[in-house]
């Protein structure tokens, strides 16, 4: 018997024609765990779908189903194991790093891997980097493994994520170059990190504009770069973000220059995520 080529192929004889219409074949690969969305119409077939996904992709040990939207203060997305090992801790590899990720307890997106790699290439020797909203540590650890930065200060508010990040720092032998800090960027930065960084990356999933002031103030007086991420309307992606950046720099008596701006990924029919790289002096 031939192995099915994809999820649709694996399920074509197990689901009805009507059920096949509701099947979503895309999923996120988080190391050894696949995370899939299953519509309400196929809820009773979740185990069948999960087993089929394992059959098609033997590299996965576990399949988790998304059971709710990102919610709460930490933007956590709840998941449920539907097939394979009863395990929600993923072992994820990226750009020479190994990351432990407690799915359902922390925010993590494998879809930003290209951004982590892009910024690592921009980091100059000896830079001190502020990695804000650091999660389990993917940005600072990819930077540590793929650049000549001096050090990254990785600030995160979710204690579960900080616990994962500290484990990941040890796992990747980066105790000397990455420091995990538990706290709110808007409270921690003014007290300890004002004017300390050559570069700041701020990939908050929602509401990054509320932390622009802290990010700009944390850049050294000699100047530095901020990587600002935001979800924006698809028909006018940059106007509001650029206005916010210029207004905040002016308020702090600092000059800014946009280095680049681009779409990172689609979010919905009307919104996309963008990143704006700008230099502060």
Q: Can you describe this structure in just a few lines?
A:
The chain is α/β, with parallel strands linked by helices and 281 residues long.
Helical percent range? Answer: 25-40%
Order of strands across the main sheet: 9-8-7-10-11-13-12
The chain-level mean pLDDT equals 95
Q: Number of helical segments?
A: 9
Instruction: Please count the beta strands (DSSP E, at least 2 residues each).
Output: 13
CATH class of the largest domain: Alpha Beta
Largest beta-sheet characterization: 7 strands, mixed
Total domain units: 2
CATH topology of the largest domain: Rossmann fold
Q: By helix and strand content, what is the structural category?
A: alpha/beta
Strand content: 25-35%
Q: What is the general shape?
A: globular
Through-space gap between termini: 65 Å
- The CATH H-level homologous superfamily of the largest domain: Vaccinia Virus protein VP39
Protein name: tRNA (Guanine-N1)-methyltransferase
Keywords: Cytoplasm, Methyltransferase, S-adenosyl-L-methionine, Transferase, tRNA processing
Domain SAM-dependent methyltransferase TRM5/TYW2-type: 27-281
InterPro entries: MeTrfase_TRM5/TYW2, SAM-dependent_MTases_sf, TRM5-TYW2-like_MTfase, TRM5/TYW2-like_N
Description:
The structure is a single chain. This protein is of the alpha/beta class and 281 residues long. The chain has 2 domains: 81 residues, Met-10+ protein-like domains (GMP Synthetase, Chain A, domain 3, 2-Layer Sandwich); 175 residues, Rossmann fold. The chain has 9 helices and 13 strands. The strands form 3 sheets. The protein has a 7-stranded mixed β-sheet with strand order 9-8-7-10-11-13-12, with helices on both faces. The chain has a 4-stranded mixed β-sheet with strand order 1-2-3-4. A two-stranded antiparallel sheet has the order 5-6. A hairpin with a 2-residue loop joins strand 1 and strand 2. Helix 4 crosses helix 5. The longest helix has 13 residues. The protein is globular and about 65 Å long. The model has no long low-confidence stretch (mean pLDDT 95).
